[in-house]
Target: Methylenetetrahydrofolate reductase
Amino acid sequence: MSVLPVEPLGQSSVIERLAAPHSGPVPFSVEFFPPRSAEEESRLWHAVRVFERMGPAFVSLTYGAGGSTRDRTVRIAGELATSTTLTTVAHLTAVNHSVDELRGLVGAYADKGITNLLALRGDPPGDPLGEWVPHPEGVQYATELVELIGTLGDFHTGVASFPEGHHRAPDLASDTANLVRKLRAGAEYSISQIFFDTDDFLRLRDRVVAADAEQGAKPLIPGIMPITSLQSVRRMVELSGSVLPERVADRLAAAAGDGPEEDRAAVRAVGIDLCTEMSERLIAEGVPCLHFCSLNFARATSEVLERIGVDTRGALAPA
Model:
């Protein structure tokens, strides 16, 4: 699918975008991943145009494990920044990259006009839960990556956070301390890993404020996703080391039924209900933004957004 260029509008920072006028009770943002085929790329750009018409605060583009989608990621991120009106956040991971390569990647993003980066240590390629081995000429922690980006120019950096605690952290206190270190290193905000228990996110927010009130004042953005397949979400939490709460799993399993194939329509309906309920509670708790993992689809997230009061009229119609 060809992408028609528009006059670049310049990339605001995420913090500026969160403070800008928005449709709905809070700003929202959307995560995409780099497509692996022409068909997937067409689907991605359809979703991009749908969300663009709704006015998200920003969109983000993930980075393949070990840089497996490096060139495609840089290209797609550049097209998002220059061929749409969307503020684009590019993910950057330390896995399998030397410091020189990381500098080159930051420069490649800058050449595309991208100044918003999400600094991640990243997961090992092949087995996300496997042993993490730093590049001999790279960095060991995301904190170092934040610091490196800070030496390279006027960039706006965010980091990841983990409501249930990172699976490599020995305990929640250690995980919270690590997030605070990343924020102190210069990160302006954090986006959480996807979670399905709102209390986990709210307790993380409490821990950060208790550990360092100044850093706790920075935006902590919840990462959420409308579930459309029980099998897929089970696989997702298995690979991430996170947990699907029993009450959520029970609702989804009841919808899936006892047949050889899950009732996808019923699971999807429950998944959208669950995501809407989470969104409404997070809004009531004063979150600065809702960050939706879209999996490069638009409709399920759009349904949640409509339910919480975002103006989606005409967004799903062909441009």
About this structure: The chain has one domain: 14-227+287-307. The two ends are 14 Å apart (CA to CA). Residues 1-9 have pLDDT under 50 and may be disordered.
